[in-house]
Write a structure and sequence with these properties.
Layout (H helix, E strand, L loop, with lengths): L6 E5 L38 H18 L5 E5 L1 H6 L6 H11 L4 E3 L26 H10 L4 E6 L18 H13 L2 E6 L10 H16 L1
Parallel strand pairs: 1-2, 2-3, 4-5
Length: 220
Protein backbone atom coordinates (compact mmCIF):
# COMPACT_ATOMS: atom_id res chain seq x y z
CA UNK A 1 0.00 0.00 0.00
CA UNK A 2 2.88 2.37 0.74
CA UNK A 3 4.96 1.40 -2.29
CA UNK A 4 7.82 -0.12 -0.32
CA UNK A 5 9.93 -2.66 -2.20
CA UNK A 6 10.53 -6.12 -0.77
CA UNK A 7 14.04 -7.25 0.13
CA UNK A 8 14.99 -10.89 0.61
CA UNK A 9 17.16 -11.76 3.60
CA UNK A 10 19.83 -14.38 2.93
CA UNK A 11 22.30 -15.77 5.46
CA UNK A 12 25.35 -16.07 3.22
CA UNK A 13 28.07 -16.03 5.87
CA UNK A 14 26.54 -18.42 8.41
CA UNK A 15 24.95 -21.82 7.94
CA UNK A 16 24.69 -24.25 10.85
CA UNK A 17 23.08 -26.96 8.73
CA UNK A 18 25.26 -27.22 5.64
CA UNK A 19 27.94 -29.93 6.03
CA UNK A 20 30.65 -27.89 4.30
CA UNK A 21 30.36 -24.52 6.01
CA UNK A 22 33.62 -23.69 7.76
CA UNK A 23 33.99 -24.69 11.47
CA UNK A 24 34.41 -22.41 14.47
CA UNK A 25 38.05 -23.52 14.65
CA UNK A 26 38.63 -21.62 11.40
CA UNK A 27 38.44 -18.31 13.20
CA UNK A 28 34.82 -17.41 14.02
CA UNK A 29 33.17 -18.88 17.11
CA UNK A 30 29.66 -18.41 15.75
CA UNK A 31 30.39 -20.40 12.59
CA UNK A 32 29.05 -23.49 14.37
CA UNK A 33 27.33 -24.21 17.69
CA UNK A 34 29.79 -25.13 20.46
CA UNK A 35 29.00 -28.84 20.57
CA UNK A 36 30.92 -30.90 23.12
CA UNK A 37 31.21 -33.83 20.74
CA UNK A 38 32.14 -33.87 17.07
CA UNK A 39 29.05 -33.86 14.87
CA UNK A 40 29.19 -36.51 12.11
CA UNK A 41 27.11 -34.44 9.70
CA UNK A 42 29.81 -31.75 9.54
CA UNK A 43 32.15 -32.79 6.71
CA UNK A 44 34.40 -29.73 6.28
CA UNK A 45 38.05 -30.86 6.36
CA UNK A 46 39.93 -28.29 4.26
CA UNK A 47 39.28 -24.84 2.83
CA UNK A 48 38.58 -26.26 -0.63
CA UNK A 49 35.51 -28.00 0.84
CA UNK A 50 33.91 -24.58 1.29
CA UNK A 51 33.46 -24.36 -2.48
CA UNK A 52 30.65 -26.90 -2.09
CA UNK A 53 28.86 -24.52 0.26
CA UNK A 54 29.36 -21.60 -2.14
CA UNK A 55 27.87 -23.66 -4.99
CA UNK A 56 24.87 -24.39 -2.75
CA UNK A 57 24.45 -20.73 -1.73
CA UNK A 58 24.71 -19.50 -5.32
CA UNK A 59 22.10 -22.05 -6.40
CA UNK A 60 19.74 -20.84 -3.67
CA UNK A 61 20.27 -17.18 -4.56
CA UNK A 62 19.68 -17.97 -8.23
CA UNK A 63 16.42 -19.73 -7.37
CA UNK A 64 15.23 -16.79 -5.28
CA UNK A 65 16.11 -14.20 -7.91
CA UNK A 66 14.46 -16.20 -10.69
CA UNK A 67 11.33 -16.98 -8.67
CA UNK A 68 10.98 -13.41 -7.39
CA UNK A 69 12.21 -11.18 -10.24
CA UNK A 70 10.55 -8.02 -8.90
CA UNK A 71 12.32 -7.88 -5.54
CA UNK A 72 13.93 -4.57 -4.62
CA UNK A 73 17.11 -6.12 -3.28
CA UNK A 74 19.08 -8.77 -1.39
CA UNK A 75 20.00 -8.20 2.28
CA UNK A 76 22.98 -10.45 3.12
CA UNK A 77 24.10 -11.39 6.63
CA UNK A 78 26.09 -11.88 8.93
CA UNK A 79 29.13 -9.79 8.12
CA UNK A 80 31.40 -11.25 10.81
CA UNK A 81 31.26 -14.64 9.09
CA UNK A 82 32.75 -12.94 6.05
CA UNK A 83 35.21 -10.71 7.92
CA UNK A 84 36.80 -13.69 9.68
CA UNK A 85 37.36 -15.70 6.47
CA UNK A 86 37.07 -13.36 3.47
CA UNK A 87 39.41 -15.65 1.56
CA UNK A 88 36.67 -18.31 1.40
CA UNK A 89 33.98 -16.10 -0.13
CA UNK A 90 34.13 -15.19 -3.86
CA UNK A 91 32.11 -12.09 -3.03
CA UNK A 92 32.84 -10.35 -6.35
CA UNK A 93 31.45 -13.37 -8.18
CA UNK A 94 28.40 -13.47 -5.90
CA UNK A 95 27.59 -9.82 -6.56
CA UNK A 96 28.08 -10.23 -10.32
CA UNK A 97 25.66 -13.15 -10.30
CA UNK A 98 23.02 -11.16 -8.39
CA UNK A 99 23.34 -8.16 -10.70
CA UNK A 100 23.20 -10.31 -13.83
CA UNK A 101 19.95 -11.95 -12.70
CA UNK A 102 18.37 -8.81 -11.17
CA UNK A 103 20.12 -5.68 -12.46
CA UNK A 104 17.63 -3.47 -10.61
CA UNK A 105 18.08 -5.18 -7.23
CA UNK A 106 20.07 -3.38 -4.54
CA UNK A 107 22.74 -5.30 -2.63
CA UNK A 108 23.37 -4.87 1.08
CA UNK A 109 25.82 -6.82 3.27
CA UNK A 110 25.79 -5.01 6.61
CA UNK A 111 28.78 -2.60 6.82
CA UNK A 112 30.03 -4.03 3.54
CA UNK A 113 32.21 -6.84 2.20
CA UNK A 114 34.07 -5.34 -0.76
CA UNK A 115 32.72 -1.81 -1.12
CA UNK A 116 30.48 -2.59 -4.09
CA UNK A 117 27.32 -2.64 -1.98
CA UNK A 118 24.61 -0.14 -2.88
CA UNK A 119 24.27 1.01 0.73
CA UNK A 120 25.53 0.08 4.19
CA UNK A 121 23.31 -1.47 6.85
CA UNK A 122 25.12 -1.36 10.19
CA UNK A 123 23.56 -3.21 13.08
CA UNK A 124 22.33 -0.98 15.91
CA UNK A 125 24.19 1.91 14.31
CA UNK A 126 27.67 0.53 14.94
CA UNK A 127 29.05 1.10 11.46
CA UNK A 128 32.69 1.26 12.46
CA UNK A 129 33.03 -0.66 15.71
CA UNK A 130 31.98 -4.05 14.26
CA UNK A 131 34.95 -6.04 13.04
CA UNK A 132 37.43 -3.17 13.45
CA UNK A 133 40.07 -5.65 14.67
CA UNK A 134 40.11 -7.03 11.11
CA UNK A 135 41.77 -5.17 8.24
CA UNK A 136 39.05 -6.04 5.72
CA UNK A 137 36.41 -4.37 7.92
CA UNK A 138 38.36 -1.12 8.11
CA UNK A 139 39.06 -1.08 4.37
CA UNK A 140 35.43 -1.56 3.38
CA UNK A 141 34.23 0.95 5.97
CA UNK A 142 36.28 3.62 4.20
CA UNK A 143 34.70 2.63 0.87
CA UNK A 144 31.13 2.68 2.14
CA UNK A 145 31.12 5.40 4.81
CA UNK A 146 29.65 8.05 2.51
CA UNK A 147 27.01 5.84 0.91
CA UNK A 148 23.34 5.74 1.81
CA UNK A 149 22.78 4.01 5.13
CA UNK A 150 20.08 1.93 6.78
CA UNK A 151 20.48 1.13 10.47
CA UNK A 152 18.92 -2.14 11.62
CA UNK A 153 17.75 -2.55 15.19
CA UNK A 154 15.26 -4.66 17.11
CA UNK A 155 12.53 -4.29 19.72
CA UNK A 156 13.91 -7.29 21.61
CA UNK A 157 16.43 -6.42 24.35
CA UNK A 158 19.17 -8.95 23.58
CA UNK A 159 18.41 -10.81 20.36
CA UNK A 160 16.56 -10.61 17.06
CA UNK A 161 14.20 -13.50 17.77
CA UNK A 162 11.46 -13.80 20.38
CA UNK A 163 12.52 -15.00 23.83
CA UNK A 164 9.81 -15.47 26.44
CA UNK A 165 12.33 -14.70 29.18
CA UNK A 166 12.43 -11.12 27.89
CA UNK A 167 8.68 -10.49 28.12
CA UNK A 168 8.08 -7.02 29.51
CA UNK A 169 11.59 -5.86 28.61
CA UNK A 170 11.02 -4.97 24.95
CA UNK A 171 11.78 -1.45 23.80
CA UNK A 172 9.10 1.16 24.42
CA UNK A 173 7.92 3.96 22.17
CA UNK A 174 10.32 6.51 23.66
CA UNK A 175 13.27 4.25 22.85
CA UNK A 176 12.07 3.70 19.29
CA UNK A 177 11.65 7.44 18.80
CA UNK A 178 15.22 7.92 20.04
CA UNK A 179 16.42 5.30 17.54
CA UNK A 180 14.64 7.20 14.79
CA UNK A 181 16.24 10.45 15.91
CA UNK A 182 19.68 8.81 15.96
CA UNK A 183 19.13 7.43 12.45
CA UNK A 184 17.94 10.80 11.20
CA UNK A 185 21.06 12.43 12.63
CA UNK A 186 23.12 10.09 10.43
CA UNK A 187 20.88 10.68 7.39
CA UNK A 188 19.89 7.01 7.58
CA UNK A 189 16.76 4.91 7.43
CA UNK A 190 15.78 2.80 10.43
CA UNK A 191 15.00 -0.86 9.76
CA UNK A 192 13.15 -2.05 12.87
CA UNK A 193 12.82 -5.75 13.66
CA UNK A 194 10.02 -7.48 15.54
CA UNK A 195 10.72 -11.02 16.71
CA UNK A 196 7.47 -12.93 16.07
CA UNK A 197 5.89 -15.46 18.40
CA UNK A 198 5.98 -19.17 17.44
CA UNK A 199 2.63 -18.81 15.65
CA UNK A 200 3.93 -15.91 13.55
CA UNK A 201 2.02 -13.17 15.37
CA UNK A 202 3.66 -10.13 16.96
CA UNK A 203 4.06 -9.83 20.75
CA UNK A 204 1.35 -7.63 22.23
CA UNK A 205 3.86 -5.24 23.80
CA UNK A 206 5.51 -4.69 20.41
CA UNK A 207 2.15 -4.00 18.77
CA UNK A 208 1.37 -1.43 21.45
CA UNK A 209 4.77 0.21 21.01
CA UNK A 210 4.37 0.49 17.24
CA UNK A 211 0.86 1.91 17.60
CA UNK A 212 2.13 4.53 20.05
CA UNK A 213 5.00 5.48 17.73
CA UNK A 214 2.51 5.80 14.87
CA UNK A 215 0.35 8.12 16.94
CA UNK A 216 3.37 10.31 17.66
CA UNK A 217 4.02 10.62 13.93
CA UNK A 218 0.41 11.47 13.15
CA UNK A 219 0.37 14.16 15.81
CA UNK A 220 3.34 15.98 14.25
Amino acid sequence: EKGLGIFLYYSLAADWKHPYFYPRESGWRSARPDYQEKQPEYLFKEDKDFEKYIDFAHAQLTELLVQYPEIAGIWLDPIMGFYNRPDLFPIDETYRMIRSLSPHALISFKQGANGDEDFSAPERGGAKRVGTQLEVANLVYEKNKNKLKEICNTLQPHSWGYNKANDGEHKKAAEVLQMLADAEAQNANLLLNVGPLPDGSFPEEDINTLIEVGKKFKSK
